[in-house]
Design brief:
- The complex is a heterodimer.
- By secondary structure, chain A is an alpha/beta fold.
- Chain A has 18 helices and eleven strands.
- Chain A folds into three domains: about 210 residues, Rossmann fold, CATH 3.40.50.11540; about 80 residues, Roll (Ubiquitin-like (UB roll)), CATH 3.10.20.600; about 80 residues, NADH-ubiquinone oxidoreductase 51kDa subunit, iron-sulphur binding domain (de novo design (two linked rop proteins)).
- The longest helix of chain A has 18 residues.
- The model of chain A has no long low-confidence stretch (mean pLDDT about 95).
- Chain B has seven helices and six strands; from the N terminus they run ββααααβααβββα.
- A four-stranded mixed beta sheet of chain B has the order 4-3-5-6, with helices on one face. A two-stranded antiparallel sheet of chain B has the order 1-2.
- In chain B, helix 1 packs antiparallel against helix 2.
- The chains are: A alpha/beta, B alpha+beta.
- Chains A and B meet through strand 7, strand 11 and helix 14 of A and helix 2, helix 4 and helix 5 of B.
Amino acid sequence: MAAQTQILTERIGKIDPSSLEEYVGSGGFEALRRALTLSPVDIIYEVETSHLIGRGGAAFPTAFKWRAVAREEARPKYVVCNADESEPGTFKDRYLMEGDPFRIIEALAIAAYAVGANKGYIYIRGEYPLAYQRLAHAVEESRRAAYLGFNVGGSDFCFDIELYRGAGAYVCGEETALFESIEGKRGQPRLKPPYPVTHGLFNKPTVINNVETLANIPPIILNGGFWYRSLGVHLNPGPKLYAVSGHVRRPGVYEATMDLTLRDLIYELAGGIPGGRKLQAVLVGGAAGAFLGPEQLDVALGFDSLHHIGATLGSGAVMVMDETVDLWQVLRRVTRFFQHESCGKCFPCQLGTQRQAEIVARLAEGEIRPGDKALLIDIGLTMKDASLCGLGQTASNALLSACDRFSLLGEGGGQ
Amino acid sequence: MNQQDGDLVYDYPAVEAVLTRHEGKGRAGLLPCLQDLQQINGWLTPELCQLVGQRLNIPIADIYGVIDYYALLYKEPVGRTIIRVCDDIACYLAGSEEVLAEFKKWLGIGPGETTPDGKYTLEVHPCLGYCDQAPMALVNQEIHGHLTPEAVATLLEAK
């Protein structure tokens, strides 16, 4: 498999994740040491050259955030690692945190040095007890070895990290909701603008990056932005983690460049569908993503290539469903999920997710009424246009894509 | 948690240690403080919430606003062991409905309920992020993956 790489996952399964010695022995903290000999401007230049795109789901260029915060005059500044991975079907950040926790600390320290922050936070999903333990241990070990604290690595750069545990709210993965949560409030998204780069955590300039995004930083610092940019696809360079689940022989996390096709991911890496059954549908991008059908297996799993066919890579979740699955039962779960996780701050999402879930629950029982499809499209477009944050804006994606792709409501669809 | 004549008896030194650790951090201390107190007592009693309000200087209404918002914080008594069964897409595809049915049968309770002896609370959760180990459940802090109805029986017998 040409596209398969081992950059982000280079240590996973090969070193003891609780051992600082093994991390350092396998090249750990070399990128931080090198970064401390560079100027912040040079580091941001490397990240910009690399064309690293955020891996949390929104696909925002990482260097944009870093440069904007580096330019801010206000003090203090913060760097935050968004480890509140809760998109259904996504478990790649957990895999990184459990398997190579020191890497996140090293990358966050580099980010802090580059933007002029001295304090970092890692906000870890509350349902990830093992990832939390591993990271908590890694932070302590790093402090002991002076990779965190005063004079990091003998330089005059001071940096420390505080860990926060989430408490069971999907929307806290939205950056401003995550800030609210750290600030001890209900984790509801804020109105944007102002954006986190000027008014983030505690209303100070803040860089917030996803776990997987940060995991890309050490190799970029060690090998340079041009090297990174040469990996994989033009404009979508670098390795990506794919979390594969559902009806495959080997569910798990796979790393590849973004020219990997859906067919190769499902049939080569994940071992294909067990029992000789046929593929019915693939949900790419989690509950906020879109359904693809068997005729689309040759699409490359990149941000741009999926965008071109009206889908989204999102967080890299790939859920595979064979021919035996009742898609309505799946859609029922998707819409129930958004109904449950809507924070209620803005009405389009609060009401839209409820009506959508009610209608789908009825359709799942086989009770189709005339006008259902038009109604679902109306609700979906309203949420997309008028919701405050990404939760409401994407809450109808999977449902509407399934109705279209598989003509679930007939060709005209209850019009 | 000890219970005597309806009055709750806490591990007061532990509670005091948690409050001391988080006071002075302002609102940013609230979520970790509530999580740590819940670790000691299982759930957040009105008395504990009152103490948090006094020591962290936060209005009691705000504290309940926060507790209500988060699925992992409890302001009513829950079982000493909380079983969170994932019922989202990947787990559903792998048979979470049979696993959940087995939990219900063994415990004699439905989702959201606590056994009369206060030992177990059963919850059904949206995706818990262990889709590679589907179907799965979190039993307090333990991760139990690749569950079958037989595995559920073994798990509960061992408890």
